[in-house]
From TrEMBL:
Pfam families per the UniProt record, alphabetical: AAA_16, DUF87
Domain called AAA+ ATPase: residue spans: 65-274, 641-1042
Protein name: AAA+ ATPase domain-containing protein
Cross-referenced InterPro entries: AAA+_ATPase (IPR003593), AAA_16 (IPR041664), HerA_central (IPR002789), P-loop_NTPase (IPR027417), T4SS_component (IPR051162)
């Protein structure tokens, strides 16, 4: 063999080809696909046991009962990989029929749940060698083709699509009677109506197949549906699903001594559900009853620790039935060096083979170093694959080969567990699928359903591909465009549902090819394409494929899923976790039919959320540890942050770190945050280096990675020179002020006037105060007159200068001579502080800062972290004026967006500047007002200061949570004493002795001494020029995205 240079292998390794090879999680739809990476030596004991159970059924002797095989293991041990291997072995060896279901369910009737998923399982391709033939068709064929029980002429007539309904029904009844009469003993326990229903599948009319599946799912059928199936009565009684499952088992045994394998995966997902013990008992009762049938094998897979909790709810005889004969199998989590070498090597071989480069994984695992397997030995399959995935991703980004694991006992990612909201949606979806979802029978309606489903795939792909679809007659032209705007495919899709008799199907194929012209033609069909090689249509279909055409069968279960997903999305898409669930589950893209139609080169993997284990109550968060003889976690209610929090402590006390720790946890739960950064340290979140600094705790390191994936960090630099940084312009008053109720409008207008007065040097008394009042009235009137227009400084100047009658009417007795100086001062303000009012860049909007404006909805599903650097605004008066406008806009948002849940938080670092004890800056009144009003809108204000003696405590009753670190200043202690004396424990004399990270947490009078957790990102000073660069980066990305979207739509 010719030696191939290693750089060719490495180039392929660093490409985006086959990115899924190291994906560690098996999704449920992958169960039905061959596993090219299966290593038979892994879990060999379990495989041997399963094969013995299968072979036992095929021994011709009287069997007492079926068997239950219980697989227990830790997360990441490879349970679902193993079940996939069981499925492939069972059906590739034609030893039976395989049903798979995840027990992510809250249903009470598990027989019905099991039946629906059994029929869906049988609606999948039986095995790779059978092409698109489903399990149901395989069973139907086995029923009619065995041992010459049915004459060949009857078989051919039954498969003739041109029979009228009465003749078809008579023939079905005749064949069913022949089977029972000729093999009465073998079919003694088999249900006659079930035989008839399966015989109807031999007729390839799609509507007939859909009606058969309705019957098999025990769904209600119309009188017409029953008539079309020879007046078979629907099975709609409560115990019918159980009887039909038993009937299917008896039929499989009668037809070919086939096994009926039922796999229950992820049994642990029952555990968080309400009444888990009851539901577990019901599920196990149903499975043990079904396992009484000799050819039934029930395989149960569960986390070991969860099963130990649940098993105590079972009666001892039932427990013995599950755990003995065969004995419980405990899956070995740790792989040895040889297994790891095969695990990695077989994947690399597939990668290189895809580019037609020969490799020998037995000899090399290049580009991984040869010592890698020995260093990874002892880890689970999931952790090993995920480590390899991370290494490949790093190589793709850097062009450097993978490194060796850092130590001989690596402890990488903890196994991902779905967060309860995601788990809840998975449970809802699982249960929702078992409901009735009627599929349109009209081809035109089906084509529209398919079109909507393909368009929906954009959301499943997080907009990484765009599908442009145009309908011509009864065909869909689909252009697939990647994120860079490159057209990847031109296809034309058309139905080819007609029967082959009389050339009807061939004519449809011809029309499709004509319509497609130079585009790739895709023929879709709801039943199998004809495959009899003796027929003319088989030749015609071969020619179609030779010219680049594709045949895709979309099964009834696939159509039902499309219908179900449409209504499910309408019902749940408003939930914040819906898009994460959708992109993780990918219900449509995981279907083989959609994979065939779209044939995407690269589908970006959504990395599973990996977070630090959290308490079961997700309304709480751990922020530190109680200090004392027996340390324990200290948690706070998220809801208490609606009533605001204050963080006090001298420099180095860790107050900002504690505040950031809380904010990070809120961001992980989808709650946006705004950080007001005076010193430049909070801008660290925008630095790539801050997310890569070493952390000693691997769990925290992965939690930080999860946070980085979750948030969208945006830095604003108001006041910076135009063209640098990212501007954030402020209006004179918040947009939409005129739409507020009059009382709130006037209050915000007065605050705006006071802020303008302060920056013009006005005092809060005498004529200055009168001018502020005039200004407030002018702002209020103009806002009401121009509700949908932004109020500019020029608008205000002109309105006052002209002494508009409406203004004169409003101010009453105030002398108009005050107008002249007011106008002059406003003109001076416009000239001297133009950078504050420059209309370049984005306009200040709380919706936008929280990532909730309309232009954000389609761009990102991440949670916004907006950081506003005030370093470029100049002196404190400018800063205070700008922040006052921010406070006013937050007030406007609060007035129009009431909420009883936390919508977002805002951190005011060095808050003593905005709420000082000894002065009244432009920010003070708006901030005091916001402390009262923000909680009704679910907005939490977080005030942090290293100068607690300078803060005004008059509003302390509006703040429910206080975190007080080391405070030594006498002035500060004296100011804190009244508040601390109201607590149940007075800790004033203990504050000075606290070290970094130690705080007294006070909430509703309760005092706790805690050691605060560190934030995941360490806030360090960022130079001013680098802040501008970080802000510009976000602005450039936004502009690039804008133009990309613009040109795509052109």
């Amino acid at each position: 063999m010719v030696e191939i240079p290693q750089d060719k292998f490495f180039k392929i390794f660093c490409s985006r080809v086959k990115e899924e090879i190291f994906h560690p999680i098996i999704h449920h739809n992958q169960i039905w696909q061959p596993d090219p990476y299966d290593i038979e030596s892994i879990h060999q004991e379990s495989r041997d046991c399963f094969e013995r159970l299968l072979n036992r059924i095929n021994i011709q002797e009287q069997l007492g009962s079926g068997r239950i095989m219980l697989l227990l293991g830790d997360a990441g041990a490879g349970k679902t990989h193993l079940l996939r291997a069981f499925r492939n072995y069972t059906q590739e060896k034609v030893l039976g029929y395989f049903a798979y279901m995840q027990m992510t369910s809250s249903v009470s009737n598990y027989a019905n749940y099991a039946l629906r998923y059994t029929i869906d399982s049988f609606d999948k391709p039986y095995c790779e060698s059978s092409g698109s033939m489903t399990g149901l068709m395989h069973l139907s064929n086995a029923l009619i083709e065995r041992r010459n029980i049915v004459s060949q002429s009857d078989i051919e007539q039954l498969r003739n699509g041109e029979l009228n309904r009465n003749v078809l029904t008579d023939l079905v009844y005749k064949i069913a009677d022949d089977i029972l009469n000729k093999e009465r003993e073998r079919f003694l326990k088999v249900d006659l109506d079930l035989i008839r229903a399966l015989l109807y599948l031999q007729n390839d009319e799609p509507a007939t197949h859909a009606r058969v599946r309705k019957y098999l799912r025990c769904e209600n059928m119309t009188e017409y549906d029953s008539k079309m199936l020879g007046n078979i009565a629907p099975r709609i009684q409560e115990d019918d699903p159980e009887r039909l499952l038993q009937a299917l088992a008896h039929l499989m045994m009668a037809v070919n001594s086939g096994a009926f394998v039922i796999c229950l995966d992820q049994l642990e997902d029952i555990h968080p559900a309400d009444d888990a013990e009851i539901k577990f008992r019901r599920a196990m009762a149903e499975m043990t009853k079904l396992a009484e049938i000799p050819n039934v094998i029930v395989v149960i897979a569960c986390l070991r620790n969860i099963y130990e909790l649940l098993r105590n709810n079972l009666a001892e005889p039932q427990r013995h039935r599950i755990e003995y004969d065969p004995d419980v199998i405990f899956l070995k989590e740790q792989l040895n060096e040889a297994e790891i070498r095969k695990l990695i090597g077989v994947r690399l071989q597939d990668l290189y083979d895809s580019k037609r480069i020969d490799s020998n994984f037995e000899e090399s695992i290049f580009p991984f170093q040869n010592e890698t397997p020995s260093l990874l030995a002892g880890m689970s399959t999931r952790k090993i694959l995920d480590w390899c995935r991370q290494q490949r991703e790093q190589s793709i980004r850097t062009g450097q080969p993978p490194k060796l694991p850092e130590n001989t006992n690596p402890l990488p990612i903890p196994d991902p567990q779905p967060k309860p909201p995601i788990l809840k949606l998975s449970q809802l979806w699982n249960d929702y699928l078992t409901s009735s979802h009627p599929v349109p029978e009209n081809e035109s309606e089906l084509l529209q359903l398919l079109r909507r489903a393909i368009e929906h795939c954009t959301a499943e792909l997080n907009n990484s591909y765009k599908f442009n679809i145009v309908q011509r007659e009864n065909f869909l032209d689909i252009d697939i465009e990647d994120i860079e705007g490159n057209i990847k495919q031109h296809t034309t899709v058309g139905f080819c549902q007609r029967p082959p008799q009389g050339g009807a199907l061939a004519r449809q194929i011809d029309k499709l090819q004509t319509m497609a012209d130079k585009r790739a033609a895709i023929a879709i069909r709801s039943v199998e394409f004809p495959s009899d090689p003796k027929t003319k249509i088989a030749i015609r279909l071969g020619e179609f494929v030779a010219k680049g055409g594709k045949k895709v069968m979309i099964s009834d279960s696939d159509w039902r899923l499309m219908v179900a997903l449409e209504s499910f999305r309408k019902q749940y898409e408003q939930q914040p976790e819906f898009m994460h669930w959708l992109q993780d589950e990918r219900p449509l893209l995981s279907l083989p039919s959609f994979q065939q139609i779209l044939e995407l080169e690269y589908i970006p993997e959504l990395e599973p959320p990996i977070v630090e284990p959290e308490p079961s109550d997700f309304s709480r968060m751990k922020i530190g540890m109680h200090q004392g003889y027996q340390p324990s976690p200290y948690e706070i209610e998220i809801s208490q942050l609606v009533r605001h929090a204050t963080f006090l402590g001298s420099p180095g006390s860790g107050k900002t770190t504690l505040a950031l720790n809380i904010i990070e946890q809120l961001l992980l739960q989808g709650i946006p945050a705004i950080l007001l950064d005076r010193k430049g340290d909070l801008c660290s979140y925008a630095k790539d280096e801050a997310w890569r600094s070493p952390l000693s705790d691997s769990i925290r390191e992965q939690m930080r990675k999860n946070l980085q994936d979750k948030v969208e960090v945006t830095v604003y630099t108001p006041g910076a020179i135009e063209g640098q940084g990212r501007a954030l312009s402020i209006p004179i008053v918040p947009n939409g002020l005129g739409n507020l109720p009059s009382g709130e409008r006037e209050q915000l207008a007065n605050h705006a006037a006071f802020s303008l007065g302060r920056i013009m040097g006005y005092k809060d008394h005498g004529q200055d105060k009168s001018r502020i009042i005039i200004l407030g009235q002018a702002i209020s009137i103009l806002s009401e007159l121009n509700k949908d227009q932004a109020l500019t400084l020029n608008n205000l100047l002109d309105f006052i200068d002209k002494e508009d009658p409406r203004l004169l009417n409003a101010i009453g007795k105030l002398e108009t001579k005050l107008f002249k100086k007011l106008v002059q001062d406003l003109q001076t303000l416009a000239l001297g502080h133009g950078n504050l009012f420059a209309q370049s860049g984005e306009l200040l909007s709380t919706e936008s800062l929280f990532g909730r404006s309309s232009d954000n909805k389609t761009k990102t599903n991440k949670t916004r972290l907006s950081i506003i650097s005030t370093a470029y605004l100049g002196n404190n008066e400018n800063v205070l004026f700008w922040v006052s406008q921010l406070l006013l806009d937050i007030g406007r948002f609060a007035a129009k967006s009431p909420s009883d849940k936390l919508q977002g938080v805002i951190l005011f670092d060095e808050a003593d500047l905005y709420l000082p004890a000894q002065s009244k800056p432009a920010t003070k009144e708006p901030l005091e007002s916001l402390l009262k009003r923000a909680r009704s809108a679910g907005i939490g204000l977080m005030l942090a200061t290293q100068s607690p003696g300078d803060l005004d405590y008059k509003s302390r009753d509006q703040i429910s949570s206080w975190f007080i670190g080391c405070v030594k200043e006498k002035t500060a202690l004296d100011k804190l004493r009244p508040m601390l004396s109201e607590a149940k424990t007075d800790v004033t004399n203990k504050l000075a002795s606290q070290s970094t990270g130690e705080f007294y947490a006070i909430h509703n009078g309760e005092v706790n001494n805690i050691k605060a957790d560190l934030s995941l990102v360490q806030a360090k000073q960022v130079p001013a020029d680098e802040i501008l660069r970080l802000a510009s980066r976000g602005r450039e990305n936004r502009i690039t995205t804008f133009f990309q979207n613009f040109f795509r739509s052109s």
